[in-house]
Amino acid sequence: MSQLRLLRTALALLALTLLTACAAMGDDGRDGLQISQDPRGVAITSKDSNMFLPGSATLQPEAAPFFDRVGQLLRDRPERKALIDSVSDNTGSAEYNQELQEVRALSMMKALTTRGVDRSRLAYVTGSAAAPTPGSMQPVNTAAQQSKIIILGASTADMNVNTIERFFNGISNLGKSLFN
């Protein structure tokens, strides 16, 4: 009977240690990333915030954790190139939206280079097929309209992203079930 109690205590301490370690990492678990497979590679968008205010190409301060995480993913994979697929708010003329997409893409590239990603590994496209047709007033925060960063030629399986996400989600769910 005491061995069972000892085993339960040891498992509880192990779970508590893992939860503490995850909490100490802050929000570095991939919570703010929306990761999906794209025909070109692994597409990454921000779940937490819009990166830009409408009509602006200045990155919002809330976008910094997103670029920190994406920068780390790219630094961990120095053989991979990345494509920034930029979209605009789709308000105004076609020329205005094209220019806004390009300036936003350059802002995103700068955010990655300041985080140690070599500029030669980055390229951008604008006017993605995911962007709405001109004149349609769709909200900019839908997943289809968000600018994204695509790690070219990669797959979520190659990057073990799903495994990592499942691990952290499992730890989080364990913590919720133990402490709620």
Full CATH superfamily name = OmpA-like domain
Unreliable stretches:
21-30, 129-144
- State the strand order across the main sheet: 1-2-5-3-4
State the helix count. 5
Residue share in helices? 40-55%
Q: Can you summarize the main beta sheet?
A: 5 strands, mixed
CATH class: Alpha Beta
Task: Give the topology.
Blueprint: H1 2-24, E1 33-38, E2 41-46, H2 64-75, E3 82-86, H3 94-113, E4 122-126, E5 148-152, H4 156-159, H5 161-179
Parallel strand pairs: 3-4
Antiparallel strand pairs: 1-2, 2-5, 3-5
Helix pairs in contact: 1-5, 2-3
In short:
The chain has 180 residues and is of the alpha+beta class.
List keywords for this structure.
single chain, 180 residues, alpha+beta, 5-stranded mixed beta sheet
Describe this structure as you would to a colleague.
- With 180 residues, the protein is α+β, with helices and mostly antiparallel strands.
- The chain has a single domain (32-157), classed as 60s Ribosomal Protein L30, Chain: A (2-Layer Sandwich).
- Helix content is 43%, strand content 15%.
- The protein is built from 5 helices and 5 strands; from the N terminus they run H-E-E-H-E-H-E-E-H-H.
- The chain has helices at 2-24, 64-75, 94-113, 156-159, 161-179; strands at residues 33-38, 41-46, 82-86, 122-126, 148-152.
- A 5-stranded mixed sheet has the order 1-2-5-3-4.
- Helix 1 packs across helix 5 (161-179) and helix 2 (64-75) crosses helix 3 (94-113).
- The longest helix has 23 residues, at 2-24.
